[in-house]
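Hi L.,

You mentioned the student needs an example of a multi-chain input paired with its predicted structure. This one should do, with 227 residues in total across all chains.
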Amino acid sequence: SYELTQPPSVSVSPGQTASITCSGDKLGDKFACWYQQKPGQSPVLVIYQDRKGPSGIPERFSGSNSGNTATLTISGTQALDEADYFCQTWDSSTVVFGGGTKLTVL
Amino acid sequence: QITLKESGPTLVKPTQTLTLTCTFSGFSLSTSGEGVGWIRQPPGKALEWLALIYWDDDKRYSPSLKSRLTITKDTSKNQVVLTMTNMDPVDTATYYCAHNKAAAGSWFDPWGQGTLVIVSS
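Structure written out for the whole complex:
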């Protein structure tokens, strides 16, 4: 079965750029999307179709996808961006989620 | 504005069948392209996709859970029902339903608030 691998944790200082990766075999040939989940809350879509941002999501969230890796980039990271982030794609008509990355802003 | 809300039992016993209902508004499952999915999350763990149903009754299931899952829709009630048989303590999780639209690399947006299901005797 297809797997997506994310680093368990990423740390970033306020105002700096955070990059969270999601790796999978030939992931760049598929579309990836990203969700943000804060403690006790439901996931929220922050990037879809690799690089598109839903309305209401700050422009500091951006995405890319090439080769075997999709990347979520948060520019000018703020304390309120501290959360878990999950990537998602499709393989063989089924949905696959990554294991999640805890972003710490310190 | 699209909203979804999950409902069902909080506590189920091992071997029982779980039935969860997703009631939604802001879209219709009789409209081309619309879909609703179920995703669960054990406490402190990752998201796991379970099932998805589309407007045309196309149904998709997680390969690892397919034998235990059934997803159905009631278009007139704006509801999607998920049943999971032979529940086990490892199935303890928050269960979410979410809106999905058929598209290349489709995504889930928005999500319901989730409902916690505990499997224990």
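You could point out the following to them. Chain A is about 0% helix and 45% strand. The longest strand of chain A covers residues 83-91.

Best wishes,
N.
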